[in-house]
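Structure tokens please, single chain.
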Amino acid sequence: MDLSDHDLSQLDEEELLNLPEEVLRRLSVRLLNDLKEARERLKQNSRNSSRPPSSEIPWERERAASDSTDEHEEEEVRQCDDETESGESKDSDRRSKEVAQEPGEEARKPGKQPGAEGFGRQQTLAVTDREEHDPECCACCGQPLNEEDKKAWTAFETLDIEWADDNQPGLRLSNTRHTYYEIPCRCGHITRKEPHRTGRQDGLPSIVCSEWRLVGPGLAALIICLSYRMRLSRERIREFLDDWLGLRLSVGTIHNTLQEGGAAALPIEEELFQAVRESPLLHADETSWTELTTLLWLWVFSTDSVTAYWIGYRSSELIENLLGKAYTGWLMSDGYGVYRKYPNRLRCWAHLLRKAQGLKESLDRPAQQFGSQTLELLETLITAIHEARSSPSETPLTKTFQTELAVYRGVCEYMKTLSHPQTRALATEMLNDWEAIFRVLEYPFLPLTNNEAERALRHWVILRRICYGTRTEQGSRVFAILISVIETCRKRHHSPWVYLAAVIHCNRAGLALPKLPAAMGSE
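Here you go.
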């Protein structure tokens, strides 16, 4: 850059108009060179520079991917025309690929294809325990059965881990062989004991939970932990289990285990959001989330004892469906307009402080003054709020700072008329959310920031950078419910893995799911 920030901060429209013509021309050349260099930097992305894809705005990544797809399709059409004109034939792979992408037909999905030959389990582990399952009575006449006449008709093995304790630290892998018997009755009917099979969930119809599973509940909880808490891919989980437990599972088995865990925990979803709707103080936030090529948002709703997540569109309809229209608790949020319909809304001051700091460091003089004035007022009020919390006063802070607030409101009214976009945007935001921003002066016990919700998103933002989101609606539902259970149990100081293992076990056996562990100190 030819001109420094210090040079640009001293230039304004009035000064340029007063410069001599020759001086203005030379300065314009320097400004033009700087503008071209700045534009070139703005156009840099992961496709034309060394910048990583994660540095791009999500919706820009989606647009670039769409443009790239269009260019690729045009190139394929161009190649097809050239080959047709020259009489060249296409190979069988190219034909099958093009046929699959014709209008009205679905493209080939990743993973195992229907009809493809599968691979059976090849690892053999020693059986450490045995369980026998007998029918209790005749399914026809209801009479007791003679166990001496029982005959095994099927069996399977389940791998599980035993939880560590003070006496036996570490993980221990067990292999239980489940044998199911059939017993003939005097009436001639043969009654079989069969593994319980849970019906399909309403929200996840393609996932079926059953007692006939290779992966036991405890091992399933460990896989969920490795995937979501440790951020490992399916392939890395397979590698970990092989290296540390000597257990070889396929990537498909690991994926199905995660899906089953989400289906088992899905009924807890309503309990979580009911607690959210009944909370007196709620922190809400959202961050972008990609579902294959669809741009969605990962929402978080955090209270003192519950953290609930949801993946969906960024709309007022979604908020109403999750919170209801009549939520009357304190709602801490950012400046997104869909929150304004709730009467007891609070605004995060951290966002305002960062925007004011940005104006203070800008190159526009009025913006610098407005940023400095906003920072000075907010910092003064923050100090007063902390003092009011430690030593409450009968005089509300709104009266103490009545003059300062009136002056600052007049400044905002003036600043929203200026041409500088960031200055105008902050002034308009302050005026639109005036009551939500300064409501904490009336109730100093309320929080000043939305850090609670932002911290709840941080871990999953890192995971998003690794896995690039989810690929299906079902995967999004599984992800949201599992991380909701994990974070809620952590917030209540209970192990989420022990609880998830119990949930998976009860769901497989057709038993009532255990309720979420109570928060410490509550009944």
